Amino acid sequence: MKDKIGTKEHPMLLKTPPLSSEFTMHVDEKDGRDVLVCTVGKTVLLYNIQCIEDLHKMLLEYGDWMLLGSADEQKPAKEGTVEAWGRSESNPVGGWYGLKKGLRGRFGMYIPPLMEALGLAEVTHDAKGNKMRAK
Which residues contact 45 (CB under 8 A, 6 or more apart)? Predict the structure, then answer.
C-alpha cells in the first residue's frame, strides 16, 4: 500500500474534498518509522501511516457515510466525524494521528482524499459538509 503513495521525489498529487486545493502526499521515514508527509503549499503535516488501515477498518465497521468534519488542532472537532475519530483517545493509537504539534489537525481534510485515491473509500466532493465511507 505505502508504495502506491509516492516518494519525496515523486509524491502523489491530491485535491481536498471540495476539489478547491491541491496538496501532495508521500511516505518518508521519521524516527525509524514510516510516516505520511502531507504538503500543502509550504506547510508540511505529518500523520501516522497506521491511520490508513485503522480508518478503513473503522469505516467498514461503521457501515455508512461519516462526515469529515475537518478542523485545525486548536479547534474542537465535531463529535461523530472522521476528524473527531482521528484525535480520539478511543482510536487504535489512543489519540492524535497527526504527529506535528500545532499541526495535528485537518485529518478529515487530507486523509480521506488519500483513502479515495488508494481505492479504500468513497468521498463526496461538495463545497461543504463532505463525508466518506469505506469501499
Answer: 37, 38, 39, 98, 100, 103, 106, 110
